[in-house]
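Sample 3 of the quickstart, ligand iron/sulfur cluster:
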Amino acid sequence: MADVRRPFRQNLYDLDLPTLQALLESWGEAPYRARQLWEWLYIHLADRFEQMSNLPRSLREKLAAETAIGAPERIASQLSRSGETRKDLLRLADGETIEVVLMHYDQRHTACISSQAGCPLGCRFCATGQSGFQRDLSAGEIVAQALHVARQLQATGKRLSNVVMMGMGEPLLNYDAALTAIRRLIDPQGFRLGQRHVTLSTAGIVPGIDRLADEGLQITLAVSLHAATDDLRDQLLPINRRYPLDALFAACYRYCARGGRRISFEWALIDGVNDSPQQAQALAARLQGITAHVNLIPLNPTPAYPGQPSSPQAVQAFSAVLERLHVPHTVRTRRGIEIEAGCGQLRRQSPRPGAPLQKD
Ligand code: SF4
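Result:
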């Protein structure tokens, strides 16, 4: 439904299909028109009403006068040296800005999207957290980021294959909008993204994990863990003081028990901070009884945190402990670091002077 807080034309991406049908019927339009509009928005990825060639001109004019296709405005883009990662700074209808990242893998094209402008959780090593919190995004603003990336891919004959809600913000603190956005993206009559190709990442909001477990979705839950003892996690992720590890892992057990899929645990390896064999052992102990996969990635640098990525030797040693203790895990390669497009590097500002820019 319309977000009454902001005095802008109705963002069509904020409407579900029944609401869209009710709106068009209130204008005297036939019921099938809403379905046609829906297909233009989510299958053909139209971002202008003129493209909607099977809608009568009068309806297109009415839509243009009363509603908006909430495609965000691209302010700046940066492309990594390899060309595999692209980051766009987007401006929303009220002028707020967010970043979205497109990552190309062999056969996959993944969008990393944001759920909030900024983030209230203030994880020490995260540029988003360092820059504070502005506001929640609406469901339509979240969906629009995936569509923005899908349009880029469409122009080169490719299709968006994966969406990870791992950008700016904590999705489980903007639960209703985040889940509405996910349901919109997996709608079999709309954007048709496979549920198993969607990942939602949380810093550990226990009530949100419990709610998610009851949604009956097949998406992947990723938990940003980064420490396996409360004293260390309290320092790195302040949310741990509210939901300490015992509570977090109890929620993870419940999530698995209710039929949730394997949980991914994210671990940014920070030199001399959380890369010790003791932390690896504590992690393995915590994961007993949980269907889990651990993703290890050396820390991505951010301006306000002095920590450094672990050395390759330390990464290898940490991985070896997990291997010995039979913890499924993957050492991930850092991507897009030079354009600050890696995990924890997203901000709400223009590229820094000297940063590599995309040439269109
Ligand atoms: S890591 Fe995630 S939860 Fe933590 S401050 Fe950054 S965006 Fe927020």
